[in-house]
Specification:
Elements: E1 2-6, H1 15-34, H2 38-45, H3 49-54, H4 69-72, H5 80-101, H6 103-124, H7 136-149, E2 154-161, E3 164-171, H8 172-189, H9 200-212
Antiparallel strand pairs: 1-2, 2-3
Length: 213
């Protein structure tokens, strides 16, 4: 299912949500402009579990200390599809959560979820040398909060039915619960995989932290 919008109006302008969107887009453009290769930007700005655990920056060298990448990684992305899907989820669900929490609390909440998501990924793969980038861990926390704050909301989603895509209003509880289950199953399916891919542990960790906070 691919979300397009929800049916919950906001009372105030989502200033922080828009600022986070612009910050993510700005960093993505910075990745292309400031580094010799796009891959170099990922190794520099992404959080690499082994580097954070040991405190030692491995090859390729970066100007940032490993602990700083806990923050920079959540504003960096691996491609247009990556940032596009993340920003869509942030816009659909973030504006309502910001509306409920207030701007300062929402910003703090978002950052804590992102840090917690990175921590969850490090916890399950502390020796990994694969850098992780993306706002999806922080956004997963937003989804967890949305689930509790707006359990009766509905999400307009593109749903594949056989060979066709249908627009269907799906209860937010079902949409978000299914999303979470898929992340858990994805984590089990890719456990022990050596290559890069989706950081399912970060998604699950961010969601759980969002629910708890």
């Amino acid at each position: 299912m691919f979300p397009l919008k929800d049916d919950i109006p906001t009372r105030r302008r989502p200033v922080v949500t828009v600022a986070l969107l612009l910050a993510n887009v700005g960093v993505y453009l910075f990745q292309h402009a400031a580094y010799p290769t796009f891959q170099a930007s990922i190794f520099s700005l992404g959080v690499t579990p082994r580097e954070v655990v040991t405190g030692v920056d491995s090859w390729p060298p970066s100007l940032l200390p490993p602990v700083a990448t806990l923050l920079t990684s959540m504003f960096s992305h691996g491609g247009l599809a990556h940032i596009g899907s993340n920003m869509l989820f942030l816009w659909i669900f973030g504006n309502n959560v910001e509306d409920d929490m207030g701007r300062f609390k929402f910003l703090l909440f978002y950052l804590l979820c992102g840090l917690g998501a990175a921590g969850a990924q490090i916890l399950v793969a502390p020796s990994s040398e694969i850098p992780m980038v993306g706002a999806s861990g922080a956004i997963a926390g937003v989804l967890g909060a949305y689930l509790l704050l707006y359990p009766h909301a509905r999400v307009l989603a593109l749903v594949p039915i056989f060979f066709f895509l249908q627009l269907i209003w799906v209860p937010a509880v079902i949409f978000l619960a299914l999303w979470f289950v898929l992340q858990v199953l994805g984590g089990f399916a890719t456990a022990g995989a050596a290559g890069g891919g989706v950081a399912y542990a970060a998604h699950v960790g961010g969601f759980v932290i969002g629910v708890l906070l």
